[in-house]
Design goal:
- This protein is mostly helical and 333 residues long.
- The chain folds into three domains: 165 residues, Lysozyme, CATH 1.10.530.10; 51 residues, Membrane-bound Lytic Murein Transglycosylase D, Chain A; 43 residues, Membrane-bound Lytic Murein Transglycosylase D, Chain A (Roll), CATH 3.10.350.
- Helices cover 39% and strands 8% of the residues.
- The chain is built from 13 helices and seven strands.
- The chain has a three-stranded antiparallel beta sheet with strand order 3-4-5, with helices on one face. A two-stranded antiparallel sheet has the order 1-2.
- Helix 1 runs antiparallel to helix 9.
């Protein structure tokens, strides 16, 4: 199996490169890119990171909307009478409406915070517990944030599908690993070139020192993702420390919810977010005795909630021995 070298590219610098690229982002890529901003703003303002992250996904189409790409406006905030900054005109509820334009994505995230803090109609939201994302979502809709009657349900759906509520538990100590975004003048270069340059800059900053936190571990590739096998005595906390990850990242990437869980020996632990489908050639899986939806999701590198949706199953439904599960396409009706 291959050995890999992890370079600690500052998260939000990488996010800026992605946003300036013409490559379409997936939702998980968008979340990985900007979750640091959402968590930072949560600790600064009290707005749940899950809410800010889900709104960003929804309003910006995961960073792919014209408004997000051209104007760095990730929350669909319109100019209003008190807006003194740059502006752009875009068709929305009406033709040629005025929207705020920002010099960076970071500015969009911080202005979203100001927008909610300074508008009295949102004041009641800041009295809510920051872990009560459902109350926040319904409160935003009731206060008039969006005209879509299903806005609250859409926000909640993203939070629950992506387990964004785990972001609301990140402490200030865990936040210390996140850095502020840096600007780039390479907006017109292909995304792959920008990332390559970023990596080279980081490598140069370490001189001739080679950093390889995987020296004592064999790194597996499962469904195109990096993973390891747990050893006797491992805990999720120790794995997080070993690979310079946050504990909540290990939980999120592996669909883990219970804080006290410990991995079994040889259990696969993913170091990246699992995918929406199994690799080509793994179309179905026949359930064996002792298997669960979670263990099957770990075997193929597919998110648990996605397995349930592919197979038209309820979230608490256990698979039956001998049942054929679909891993790439949705089960026919």
């Amino acid at each position: 199996m291959k050995q890999i070298l992890i370079i600690a590219i500052p998260l939000l610098f990488f996010a800026t490169l992605i946003a300036n690229s013409q490559t379409k982002m997936s939702r998980s890529e968008y979340i990985d890119a900007y979750k640091g901003l959402a968590i930072s703003e949560m600790h600064r303002s009290g707005i749940p990171a899950s809410i800010k992250m889900a709104q960003g996904c929804l309003e910006s189409e995961n960073g792919n909307s014209s408004l997000a790409r051209k104007s760095n406006n990730h929350f669909g905030i319109k100019c209003r009478n008190d807006w003194k900054g740059a502006r752009v005109y875009h068709n929305d509820d009406k033709i040629n409406e005025c929207f705020r334009k920002y010099p960076s994505v970071e500015e969009s995230y911080t202005d979203h915070t100001r927008f909610l803090q300074e508008n009295t109609r949102y004041a009641h939201l800041f009295k809510l517990d920051r872990t009560d994302y459902k109350a926040w979502a319904h409160g935003l809709k009731a206060a008039g944030y969006a005209t879509n009657p299903k806005y609250a349900q859409l926000v909640i759906k993203i939070i629950e599908e992506e387990k964004l509520y785990l972001l609301d538990k990140v402490t200030t100590d865990e936040l210390s690993g996140f850095t502020q975004p840096k600007s780039t003048d390479d907006k017109n270069e292909p995304f792959s070139t920008q990332v390559s340059k970023a990596k080279n800059k980081v490598i140069e900053s370490f001189g001739n020192v080679t950093l390889n936190p995987f020296a004592s571990r064999e790194v597996l590739e499962v469904n195109g993702l990096e993973a390891i096998k747990a050893k006797q005595g491992d805990t999720y906390e120790s794995i997080a420390r070993e690979f310079n990850m946050k504990l909540w990242e290990v939980h999120l990437y592996n669909d883990l919810l219970r804080e006290a869980e410990v991995p079994e020996k040889n259990e696969i632990i993913y170091l990246q977010r699992k995918r929406y489908a199994a690799p080509k050639g793994s179309e179905t899986h026949t359930v064996r005795s002792g298997e669960s939806m979670w263990s099957i999701s770990q075997k193929y590198g597919v998110r648990v909630n996605r397995l349930y949706r592919l197979n038209r199953m309820q979230g608490n439904e256990a698979p039956r021995v001998g049942e054929v599960l679909f891993l790439r396409k949705k089960r026919p009706k």
